[in-house]
Design a protein that fits this description.
The chain has 331 residues and is mainly beta. It is built from 2 helices and 24 strands.
Length: 331
């Protein structure tokens, strides 16, 4: 009777080890004498990228932040006899794509497979005239997991690169649309009598990004505003866009960037300044528009609405505070 009870107990223990995630965690923390560490980075090949000097780069790898790394180990490596199933350990990458996982090990080497839970991110495809086409929510995978051998107090370093599973490379571009717009920035402007009023000033000589949303993917181009905050960009669209005129929309946005502004404040009723301060231009500003077709199946120019860029001081510490707080802006 004692032998039979022992055999049943051992079978139940193996079954729970192979199939129950909760029991697996108890095993990793208390039952094994030591640990090994797997550390490394995860990147993904985002395709083409246009740098600030208008150089088009390919094979552009970005850190894969907040993605799940998985480590798979056969249960049979932890227990004697024939055990079914696998043990799984996971970690989440940080903002730089770095990760670290502690793995329980015994007094013998253990083979582990390091991989990535498939995820979605944008993929950039080269077009013409240094244009990149953005495929939204492309699926990324690691083609094959990386195998490592773990021993007590070991540290294994791995570098993983996820690839886009599918991109429709057969796109042809033969439609062009001109997109115009303007941008202003929150500012204080002179009232002509020595005072200042809340208003706007041109968002001059600054980069803006125009995006066309076309039938499930995006085409993104950069433009630069002139002294009055106006911008123009000629965008190349796929050859079949004329079939979907209602599906082509445009928007303009900015990326967070630093700039300088003149700081003014009112002290005892008198306006003082200016003092140059550093500010952050907000990335939340945008404008929208849509494309229309002419009778010749060509796109007429698109005029986007003017949008306003917010500004936030980088650091107010040390600035004189006037009667009404911290007003600031351009002359």
């Amino acid at each position: 009777m004692t032998k039979k009870i022992f055999a049943v107990s051992m079978f139940i223990g193996l079954f729970m080890l192979a199939s129950c995630q909760k029991e697996q965690s108890e095993l990793t923390l208390s039952s094994l004498p030591s640990q090994a560490t797997i550390t490394g980075t995860l990147k993904y090949d985002a395709g083409a990228y246009k740098s600030a000097d208008n150089t088009l780069l390919t094979g552009y790898e970005l850190p894969a932040a907040n993605r799940t790394i998985s480590v798979t180990i056969a249960t049979s490596q932890y227990v004697s006899g024939t055990a079914q199933g696998d043990q799984y350990f996971t970690a989440t990458t940080d903002a730089e794509g770095r990760f670290s996982i502690n793995i329980p090990v015994s007094n013998k080497d253990i083979s582990a497979t390091v991989s990535v839970v498939p995820f979605y991110a944008d993929y950039y495809l080269e077009s013409t005239n240094l244009t990149t086409v953005t495929f939204s929510n492309a699926l990324y995978k690691v083609a094959a997991g990386q195998t490592v051998t773990l021993s007590q107090n070991d540290v294994e370093v791995v570098e993983l690169v996820a690839e886009c599973e599918y991109v429709p490379y057969d796109i042809e571009f033969n439609q062009t649309v001109t997109v115009n717009g303007a941008a202003v920035v929150d500012a204080f402007v002179s009232d002509g009598g020595g005072g200042w009023n809340e208003g706007t000033a041109p968002f001059a000589s600054q980069p803006v990004f125009v995006t066309a949303n076309v039938d499930g993917y995006k085409i993104k181009m950069q433009a630069t505003t002139d002294a009055l905050g106006n911008y123009t960009v000629n965008m190349n669209l796929p050859s079949d866009c004329w079939d979907y005129p209602s599906g082509v929309t445009f928007n303009t946005s900015i990326e967070s960037t630093l700039g300088n502004m003149n700081y003014y404040y009112k002290s005892s009723g008198t306006w003082m300044g200016p003092q140059v301060i550093q500010v952050v231009y907000s990335a939340s500003a945008y404008s929208n528009g849509s494309a229309t077709l002419t009778s010749a199946n060509k796109f007429s120019p698109v005029q986007l609405s003017r949008f306003t860029v917010d500004t936030d001081p980088v650091n107010l510490v040390g600035l004189p505070q006037g009667d009404g707080g911290y007003p600031f802006g351009w002359r």
